[in-house]
Amino acid sequence: MTKAPDSLLVVDDDSLNRDLMMRRLSRRGFNVSSAVGGEAALQWIKENQVDLVLLDIEMPETSGLDVLSAIRRDYTPAQLPVIMVTGKISSDDMVQALNIGANDYITKPIDFPVVLARIQTQLSRKHAEEALRESEERYALAALGANDGLWDWDLIKSKIYFSPRWKSMLGWEEHEIGEDPDEWFQRIHPDDVDRVRADIAGHLKELTPHYEDEYRMLHRNGNYLWMLGRGLAVRTNGGKAYRMAGSQTDITRGKVVDILTGLPNRVLFMDRLSRSFERARRGRGKAFALIFLDLDSFKLINDSFGHLMGDQLLVAIAGRLEATVRATDTVARFGRNHTIARIGGDEFTILLEDTTNAVDVTRIAERIAKELGEPFAIGSQEVFPTASIGIALYNPNYQSPEEILRDADTAMYSAKALGKGRYEIFDANMRANTIARLQLETELRRGIERKEFEVYYQALVSLETGRIWGFEALVRWKHSTRGLVSPNEFIPVAEETGLIVPLGQWVLKTSCQQARIWQARFESGPPLLISVNLSARHFLQPDLVQQCREVLDETQLSHSSLNLEVTESAMMPDPESAIDLMGQLKSLGIKLALDDFGTGYSSLSYLHRFPLDSLKIDRSFVSHMMEDDEIVRAIITLGRNLGLKVIAEGVETIDQIKKLKDLGCEYAQGYYFSVPVNAQEATDLLTAQNSRLTATLDGWSPAAKKAYALASVAEA
Ligand code: C2E
Ligand code: CA
Ligand code: CA
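Above: the input record for the complex with C2E. Below: its predicted structure, written as tokens.
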């Protein structure tokens, strides 16, 4: 690095003196400028880099002494040496000048070698002091940590010294990065660079005591790293920054902000939570509340729309949460501090400080639930992502901030278990439930490994003929200690953990095998239908069609004997893909039923586009049908208009059967005919039906009794 020539400023009102001096000094390699009077000189110094001033003491407008005083207000003699030039030897003036802070003086007529010698003396002293100070400052910076990249910015020359570490952090060799400030700014992420520039400018203008920023820097390998930048300006006595130095620390690993949403991440959130916790515990701060929020169907949305859309949704939700919490009157009114963070994939937390009031917190939770209920436009789609919300309030029994987070999480789980899209405040019972649930999950995994499951079958009956039209396969868990466990208990956990997929595959295969056996044994009449429940998670498996094809090939079951029962929750997140997938299943010859019809958020506008074969009326409507048959009637009419078979679930009495027949319903299933039974008992049912027993009821086997019930249907 060759040293730039020193810049001299010659201030003299006499043009002859000025030009002479300029020419001679220029010839000696200085970079010389001149000013005619005091005002012009001060202006020049303000705007330009000057290393030394030759200042005429006698000037008409502003005297040399006044100019000197003005310079000394901004610069020490070491920072900007001034040599006074005087025509007469007046010791008074010179003494005064030296007192004000002149470094030296020369007299006219000018003896140039003397002038040169004095200039050199002043300049070399100035450079020596500069070098010393620079190395001291740099040393102080280096002490900040060898792991940090250091920079030292000469604002006058607009050059930055970047330390070797600064360069290697970004993957570059020492010689590959120069001294241009753009080496830095061009590597800052486009979303961050304006902020960084503004923050530096603010510090240079003394708006901030020091500079500090977090921003992303481009590494040679194309990735961005999160950096913490810190710096401090070095100023003249007058406050003008002429140099700024600082450090850059890689904080990517412990980065405190979630890159996707810009919200604090778990690390930062836990930090804030800990602080609130400590304050509350020492009695210095008020209590606080924690809200834990988990989206209910994010996996579905991600699986069906793709991750990019999923990301967009998370960003949109983050924005809506911010706006909602800030707009909540209790937050606005009391100026409460809050922190919203994303601490996991689709998990958000909100820390509400200075909150002792459960009412306030629930109001916020209600607001959030309502706001998230409004549709989000993601791409060309609208999605309605509900969330389950858990609330925990600080109390002095808590031993650590983690416990509060755990309890808010538990309350969130409880909200999910109670039907999702709602909030719950933590209470101690919840914890017991969570533990039980965790245990269930562990046991379920083991149960699947050990094949502790069995498929039960429930008859689907034609109300017209009273004959068994098919069976619905219903899985049972033969738990080693708890006996038969109801699917209502373990299917939701299996769904959540993904265990439903291997389990569902097993049910599909087992029941298709069984159907094939029955079809071979009971040949009279139309072939038996086997109806298999397909969970939403399973429905969205990309290889579902392939799975079905393989099972049908393997079991040799005719394709039209398989009926898949799907619920609206599987189809609504992305109706278009669902329609496409169902079309593929249909083209294999498989039949499709819409299960639990009427309980979901049925979108009637889509119903006619789903390539369905049947609708199953949910048991809740059938069980209230005798008091109020409006819904059942409407569903039957709807089904008929769409050309679908309608199956009534949960039929328990002969009166219900009569009513259903009156309303035009053709198929039913329920305890009236048969509870779900194992394969052997189901076989007995079919046998009894086919042997047409006419004996008296007494002495009949249970299967024969059921067969009788079946036969009586046709007459009802
Ligand atoms: P679902 O698909 O609505 O199945 C009908 C449920 O109603 C069955 O409960 C059945 O035993 C019950 N049921 C049938 N008739 C009557 C009646 O007359 N009265 C009463 N009170 N209940 C009746 P189950 O077997 O406990 O299954 C519960 C739910 O678990 C099923 O509801 C289904 O959603 C799910 N499930 C069962 N097996 C499977 C499976 O293999 N895969 C998947 N994905 N889900 C399954
Ligand atoms: Ca079903
Ligand atoms: Ca059902």
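Notes for the reader.
The chain has 27 helices and 26 strands.
The mean pLDDT is 87.
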